[in-house]
Amino acid sequence: GALCGAVQPIYFAVGLAVLFALLFSFVRSRTSQSADTIIGVFSSTAVALGIFIVTLGGRSFTKFNRYLIGDILSVTPGEIGLLALVLLAVVLLWVFGSNQLVLTAVHPQLASSRGIATKRNETLFTVAISIVVTLARSWVGLMVINSLLVLPAAASRNLARNLRQYHLFSILSALGCSLLGLMTAYVLGCSAGATIALYLAAYFAVSFALRGRAG
């Protein structure tokens, strides 16, 4: 999108992210490799391809550094509005499809035997994640965005005793650490994404220390 001179490259990025998500679902359904392995292949390939194209012909990547480390000040009102719409869509997806999504993730064979369209649910979930990640990338940065996906859930798993607590702790920790990270970054003048990731890492360390008591 940036190379084509688009005023809002983010829309190009969302379209490409959806395409990659659909391709990811296709590959995943036809291989025994774990989802983490396939994600690693796709993410590294996508980042490498982007840097290759941007730097082709000796051009500098400097003006795109904000996509790597994030820049909260670069977020436009239009992107905030788009994030709000995506948030609403994700909430509706969770309200109306949480049971099917959870059963599909935990036991796809059982879900399929109960008439649940597991492939559709997996594809829908993958597309939703790809859109959220793409929109959040411009202020979080590619370098730490994976931590925002993994750390809240990983830490909350150490403390939660059931699925409801697991979801609640994950959401609250992500929100709390994000707010703390934004305020700290504003005061210290540092990267918001990296600061949020550090707060989440600290939360994981605390939850890891307390995991025996929570159990």
Please state the structural category. Answer: mainly alpha
Give the termini separation.
49 Å
What is the helix tally? 9
How many runs of DSSP E, i.e. beta strands? 0
State the share of residues found in helices, binned by percent. over 70%
Q: What is the general shape?
A: globular
Radius of gyration: 18 Å
The largest β sheet comes out as: none
Task: Give the percentage of residues in beta strands.
Answer: under 5%
Low-confidence stretches are none
- Average pLDDT, rounded to a whole number, is 80
The helix-strand sequence is HHHHHHHHH
Could you please describe the fold and organization of this structure?
- The mean pLDDT is 80.
- Helix 1 (9-28) packs antiparallel against helix 6 and helix 7 runs parallel beside helix 9.
- The longest helix is centred in the middle third of the chain and has 30 residues, at 77-106.
- The termini are far apart.
- The chain is globular.
- Helix content is 79%, strand content 0%.
- It is mostly helical.
Quick synopsis:
With 215 residues, the chain is mostly helical. The chain has helices at residues 9-28, 35-55, 65-69, 77-106, 108-113, 118-140, 145-159, 163-188, 192-214.
Q: Could you give the topology of this structure?
A:
Layout: H1 9-28, H2 35-55, H3 65-69, H4 77-106, H5 108-113, H6 118-140, H7 145-159, H8 163-188, H9 192-214
Observed structural traits:
mainly alpha; 9 helices; 215 residues; globular; single chain
